[in-house]
């Protein structure tokens, strides 16, 4: 039990340092959460360049607003919320843009996970179900934290997960 409290203290300490303007502490927090952030962005946005833009905008926004974080222990939840907002902003902008390129389906660089059946099945889900599924299964967030993060009731999170599982079963049976 002492080891867990040591890591929580260390994390709080790093967040406190970042809030006081310590750039190295902030970079350490970003590095510690980079895989989580990438997988959440990947669950929401499909285009690699848009994912990179969302991550970059998230880091900048988090750095500028780190002092608005009320409780240090919620840094991860706080930065994921910023990321989700950035991803949604990018999705809104991309809906307004009409591509004139006829070959816009050609992918120059591919993600090694792109060919996985499960990844395709998750990407086929609607945004609400996809985000909830990624947060629950890939980020190991509990229902309560997801509900807080998405600002929806816990029952809604449960029902989204149930609908997502049903749709995923249907898609995976076809594969």
Automatic annotation (TrEMBL):
Key word Transcription present: yes
UniProt entry keywords in alphabetical sequence: Sigma factor, Transcription, Transcription regulation
Source superkingdom: Bacteria
Pfam families xrefs: Sigma70_r2 (PF04542), Sigma70_r4_2 (PF08281)
RNA polymerase sigma factor 70 region 4 type domain mapped to chain residues: 117-168
Family: Belongs to the sigma-70 factor family. ECF subfamily.
NCBIfam families in UniProt: sigma70-ECF (TIGR02937)
This protein's name: RNA polymerase sigma-70 factor, ECF subfamily
Organism in which the protein naturally occurs: Clostridium uliginosum
């Amino acid at each position: 039990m002492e080891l867990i409290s040591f890591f929580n203290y260390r994390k709080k300490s790093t967040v406190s340092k970042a809030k006081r303007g310590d750039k190295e502490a902030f970079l350490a927090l970003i590095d510690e959460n980079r895989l989580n952030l990438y997988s959440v962005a990947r669950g929401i946005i499909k285009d690699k360049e848009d994912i990179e833009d969302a991550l970059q905008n998230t880091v900048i926004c988090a750095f500028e607003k780190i002092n608005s974080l009320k409780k240090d222990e919620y840094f991860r939840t706080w930065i994921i919320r910023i990321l989700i907002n950035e991803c949604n902003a990018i999705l809104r902008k991309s809906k307004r843009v009409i591509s004139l390129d006829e070959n816009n389906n050609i992918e120059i660089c591919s993600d090694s996970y792109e060919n996985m059946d499960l990844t395709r099945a998750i990407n086929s889900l609607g945004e609400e179900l996809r985000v909830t599924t990624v947060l629950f299964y890939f980020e190991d967030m509990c229902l309560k934290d997801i509900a807080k993060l998405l600002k929806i009731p816990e029952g809604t999170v449960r029902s989204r997960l149930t609908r997502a599982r049903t749709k995923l079963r249907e898609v995976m049976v076809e594969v």
